Amino acid sequence: MANMTLKKSTSAAVAALLLVVGGCVGAEPSDDDDTADGAVDDDDAVDTTVDLDLDRDRVVAFLGSGLTGFDPVVTEAAVAGLHLLEAPVPDVDDFLGNFDDAQRADGTWAGINEQDLHYAVFTMVFALMYQRLDRSPPRSLDAWIEGIDTWPEVEEEMRTFENPDNLWGGALGYVMLWIAERGTRPPWMDELDALAAAGEAEWILYNHQRPRVAQMLMAGGSEVPLQAEMLASILDQQNPDGGWGSEEDEVVSLVDDTTQTLTVLERLYAADPGARTAAFEGARFVATHYVEDGDYAGFAFEPGGDLDIDATFFALAAMVQMGVVDGDIGFRHAIGHGWSGL
Question: What pTM value is reported for the model?
Answer without folding.
Answer: 0.83
